[in-house]
Input
Amino acid sequence: MSGQKAPAGRRTVIITPAPTANGDLHLGHLAGPFLAADVYTRYARAQGREVLLGTGFQDTSTFVVTTAHRRGVTPAELVATSAEQIASTLETMGIGIDGYTGDDDRFTKWVVDFIGRLYAAGRLELRTMTFPYSERDGRFLVDGFASGGCPHCLAEGCAGLCESCGHLVAAGELVGVRSTLDPSDPVTLREADVLVLPVERYRERLRAHFEANAGGMRPHMAQAMAHMLSRPLPDFPVTYPIQWGIQVPFAEVAGQVVNPNAEPMAWSMHASTLAAEHRGADTAGEDALWLAGGGSQIGYFLGFDNIYPFAIAGPAMLLAFDGRYELPTWYLTNEFYELDHQKFSTSRGHVVWGRDLAARVPRDLIRFFLATTSPEHQRTSFNADALARVTELRLVAPWNRIAERVNGWAGRGPLPVPERSRHAAALVAERFAASYELAGFSLNRAAEAIADHLGRLDRRVVSDEDAGGYCYEVRELVRAAAPILIDLAAAVLAHDTGSAATEITPVTLPHLVAVGAGR
Output
């Protein structure tokens, strides 16, 4: 993944797609976009850059309804509980979100306004589409309501988006379609008129944009995007003939709602505005940070399965406004994070919740292990024994031995820091920067750098004459690892006056607590 730093004077707007409000965040959520976005944001701000990070929750997804049905609660009850849990887990894991969206009137009105402006400009058209239909319940089945095989890759899943190949999946084209709520329910196919965005009209402009920003994608997404944009794109349904969601005011589709996968651009704008307001900025409207020439570099940390709404349908909507908006220029995707090499499944109880793990394990250890195993280019897996073993060998034990050594000099000084130690620290910072910059962002390599340099400092034989240089290199390693090891960095650097130094007075360093050793 090639690319550049954000130009001086520009802000970086980072969005991580809103998780569905049908449960808490498990490690699969955290190991992908959330930890990565937080690490990058912390690093970039340490470099003096303006960064806004937004996310939230989405309650309009049909998966809220299917999960509520399975749990025997109302969708509204599920949303209320899930929204609180998601926010709490992000805070518990140290994920510093600036703008956290919800389901309030402000957001709903903005979505209707955004879609309404497309409608008023004639960019949406009425089309007849085929949908599965439950004869028993008398309702159309879309997205999470309909299951079957993907018509593009044959992988089993739900309608809407294919988790395997990333394509848009029309419910009426599912192979062997069935009702998700009740697989025994006879399903037929019926036609309904819906409003669509003719995405094909924008395909060449989309292709040109992504070819110009080819370095803003990891290889899997680049391959999928090239495939999708190499052939005609299907009409994208902006409204659905169902009841759950944001109601639209258009007479031709009275009683219909906004397709949840048509919300991403309006939602992203809202999230970025909330983020700016949280950080004290005065914005002039929900879309102010996205206006062309407004000084924003916009990008996403997201799962591969979300690329269609955020990189094709969404940007096509932006193009439909004839140059009003900036288009996102980079997408840092991740693959699935599994539990013991099987997909996380709340229905089967095959899950590890982020908050539950943080109650037993120091979050720096969790963040380090998730960074080590983050599914950047292929599926990876969480295992509790591996968490304990890897963090003990690569983080806790070497750090504690280093801390013991440094603590022997605590309070002495100031001690001289030789040029060779300043040079070594600069090399360390350079290696970490290569993993933190968007051009080559990698949690895996950043975690590897932490382990490598802890090992180097742990093995080093140090005399009293070299104590100042050694303590300085330890401190600078902590500074470089700070976006991941947030609590250790806060403790070590609490009274730090800066990295440039020719002398240092060593301070007492805290020890790390291993998994299972008590908190």
